[in-house]
Specification:
The complex is a heterotrimer of chains A (149), B (164) and C (387). The N and C termini of chain B lie far apart (83 Å). With 164 residues, chain B is mainly beta. In chain B, the strands form 3 sheets. Chain B has a 5-stranded antiparallel β-sheet with strand order 10-9-6-11-12, with no helix packed on it. In chain B, strands 4-3-5 form a 3-stranded antiparallel β-sheet, covered by helices on one side. A two-stranded antiparallel ribbon of chain B has the order 7-8. The chains are: A mainly beta (149), B mainly beta (164), C alpha/beta (387). Strand 1 of chain A pairs antiparallel with strand 2 of chain B, so a sheet runs across the interface.
């Protein structure tokens, strides 16, 4: 059937969310504002998790201890995306990767932006440190990115 | 390495993290919708499909009758007039996420069985008096001109007669 | 032949409008822990976990991922359900089938919704078909009011009768420590004075929006005998869906095709011929006062047009012949992912005799139902007797 009706329609949906961070994430985010990175510490298995958990899934027990961690880690894995989402596109350039970062003595990885050492390519195992923003608002982006050295 | 800190009870207030989720979709209309909107736009008529087994006429038109699970192949014109099966006057505003705007209240809203159709459709009705907007009223579709070939070509329904 | 299945324990959060003190996964553990304690089980004793949640309402897409440790899923088999208002009962139905299959002995079912993190009315418009329905939506309120008007036209129920339903619900809620709304002093006059938001719906006729979670432990016969002195046996389960567009079943409160179908099959399976006489208590999913009246008719508690008489005569009040929603029902608590599951949990509580102030005397047989989506219906019969 010949028709002027287009085969598709476009729709944009916008839903405003307002998440409760919970006590563990609140501790973590407020720590970032003070340039501290907190991990949770399970009293039973001793694992340190970043970002922190209020509950250990392995031991099935609540956690209420937090430990500031050394601000150095290693890149366990990384990816160079073709494009970053809009909210990161105004980010200082140079951080061309998403990385899984194992901070010292932690059992979990933190996902964040990673910048390779200028003039080098990024490698698994690269040692990275956080680069803090001047103005911090208790957000994961208070760390601008992790820089490989 | 610093010593662990037990201070979960000290902070009772927790952070809220706002996030506006924005998603863009491009939906394929499908052959039945394309035909329906074509007829609506070009010929100002409303078409449904008839199930060859149970004879029900469906608007919106669809590939199978859900009750018989038989392909519906016969197109049938239904009237732009019908009967109000249910109705209300909405007085509580809410934001329409498709437009980001609040629809002004009050507005009439109802479910209408068009003559010739076995199913009904929700739509706006141009009556805002609770005493006057009643089940059984006869209503007629108002069309947007020029028509574009989508559901908004029917703007709302007007009351044309009392309950029978 | 299906194996016998019983509920031996339940857990709930204290439901409320906003839990800003916890996030979703923390809230979930608050419901699971008491359930495990009541059953004297550890999370490692659960062979599988079924979870239920409506993601768009709170924006944690894949809660099966983000809350996995909280709902006990690490290294466990599991399925996630999101079936609208029926999500809680779909989850229980699945848990039932897992145990009834004989493959799993202990299955944990968890329903949860942190509704205050999202914007339900906005998210609900995505329920409408994008091509046919989304530009003509008036929210759940508009749809429901239209349906109620058809029901009133067919049945003749009055606003006062609807108000009595609200009073029954919220006074019952005051006996339930978990209920969101607890109004022990509410009167019919209070309800009649609340403003009409879409005729015939008054503000007080509608359910609230809640944050909450619910957990239920379902086990095989061998386990039930060890874990509980009075297990609540699941005797029958039925589910029915509707046609696809909201206008396909225009009288869908007056004539709830899916509910009629599901409950008739359910009663048949359970050998019930006169539900009003043979049921001792019912926990039904009533989104609003008018819906409860319509459900009395559609579930076969009374003949068409007689629902008003049922509430006028106090048949469904505490102390009446068939108490409906001793927990306060959905009119007191609606955390969508949990709400339908709470109906099953509360029915189980009645059979197990642990209802405290909301306990109905001598409960042998209970009905629990879920309702949601485009008028879908799930229904269960629970009994104190495994035969």
């Amino acid at each position: 059937m010949k028709t002027s009706i287009a085969p598709t329609i476009q729709q944009k949906i916008q839903i405003p969310y307002n998440y409760s961070a919970g006590p563990a994430m609140t501790k973590f985010l407020r720590g970032l504002k003070d340039k501290v990175i907190y991990a949770s510490l399970c009293a039973s298995c001793g694992k340190r998790s970043v970002p922190p958990l209020s509950f250990c899934g392995r031991c099935w027990q609540p956690i209420d201890s937090y430990v500031p961690v050394e601000q150095v880690g290693a890149v366990e894995s990384f990816v160079a995306p073709a494009a970053f989402p809009a909210e990161l596109s105004s980010h200082p350039s140079g951080a061309g990767f998403y990385g899984l970062i194992r901070l010292q003595d932690c059992s979990t990885n933190l996902v964040h932006l990673v910048q390779a050492k200028p003039g080098s390519s990024l490698q698994i195992g690269a040692v990275v440190r956080p680069v803090w923003k001047e103005e911090r608002t208790a957000s994961i982006m208070d760390i601008a990115y992790f820089a490989a050295e | 390495m610093s010593a662990p800190v037990k201070d979960r009870k000290a902070e009772d207030d927790v952070l809220r993290v706002p996030y506006l989720l924005q998603m863009e979709y491009e939906y394929a209309l499908g052959q039945h919708a394309i035909r329906f909107f074509h007829e609506l736009k070009e010929n100002r008529r409303l078409m449904g499909v008839r199930c060859p087994e149970c004879q029900r006429v469906y608007i919106p038109p669809r590939p199978v009758c859900g009750i018989c699970y038989v392909p519906s192949t016969e197109w049938v014109e239904v009237s732009d007039e019908g009967t109000l099966i249910g109705c209300t006057v909405v007085r509580l505003p809410f934001i329409d996420p498709m437009t980001g705007e609040q629809r002004p209240v009050p507005y009439g809203f109802g479910i209408i069985r068009l003559d010739g159709s076995s199913t009904s459709m929700f739509h706006f009705v141009d009556e805002t008096d609770d005493a006057k907007l009643t089940v059984g009223l006869r209503v007629k579709a108002n069309f947007r001109e020029p028509r574009e070939g989508n559901m908004r070509d029917i703007t709302n329904f007007r009351v044309i007669g009392t309950a029978q | 032949m299906p194996q016998k299945v019983a509920i031996v324990a339940t857990g709930q959060t204290k439901h409320t409008s906003r839990r800003t003190d916890v996030n979703q996964r923390e809230m979930i553990t608050e419901a699971i822990r008491p359930a495990l304690e009541e059953a004297n089980l550890k999370i490692s004793d659960c062979d599988a976990v079924m979870i239920g949640n409506m993601e768009p309402f709170e924006g944690y897409m894949f809660p099966e991922l983000w809350a996995v440790e909280a709902w006990g899923g690490y290294l466990k088999p599991s399925v996630k359900f999101n079936t609208g208002g029926t999500v809680g009962t779909s989850t229980i139905a699945a848990a039932y089938y897992y145990v009834a299959s004989g493959i799993y002995d202990v299955v944990l079912a968890v329903g949860f919704e942190k509704q205050s993190d999202g914007h339900t009315q906005t998210a609900i418009t995505t329920v409408g078909d994008p091509v046919w329905e989304r530009s003509i939506m008036a929210g759940a309120l508009g749809n429901f009011a239209v349906m109620a008007s058809t029901y009133i036209h067919e049945s003749g129920v009055t606003p006062e009768q609807a108000a009595k339903i609200v009073v029954k619900a919220r006074r019952n809620g005051a006996n339930n420590p978990y209920a969101h709304l607890q109004m022990p002093e509410l009167t019919v006059e209070d309800v009649m004075k609340s403003d009409v938001i879409a005729f015939p719906i008054r503000r007080m006729d509608m359910c609230p929006q809640s944050d909450g979670a619910c957990a239920v432990v379902l086990v095989s016969e061998a386990k039930a005998k060890k874990l509980a002195s009075k297990p609540a046996w699941i005797k029958a389960v039925a589910t029915a869906h509707e046609q696809q567009y909201m206008g396909d079943s225009p009288k869908r409160l007056a004539v709830m095709r899916s509910q009629i179908d599901a409950t008739r099959r359910l009663y048949n399976m359970a050998g019930i011929t006169n539900p009003r006489n043979e049921l001792d208590v019912a926990e039904i999913y009533e989104v609003a006062s008018w819906a409860e009246l319509a459900m009395y008719e559609n579930m076969g508690f009374c003949a068409r047009g007689e629902a008003g008489r049922l509430i006028d005569e106090g048949v469904t009040e505490m102390g009446g012949e068939l108490p409906v929603n001793p927990s306060g029902g959905v009119l007191c608590t609606n955390c969508i992912g949990a709400t339908a599951m709470i109906r099953v949990a509360e029915a189980a509580i009645q059979v197990m005799g642990t209802g405290g102030k909301r306990q109905v005397d001598n409960v042998k047989t209970a009905l629990a139902t879920g309702y949601g989506g485009n008028a879908w219906c799930d229904a269960f019969i629970l009994s104190n007797n495994s035969n």
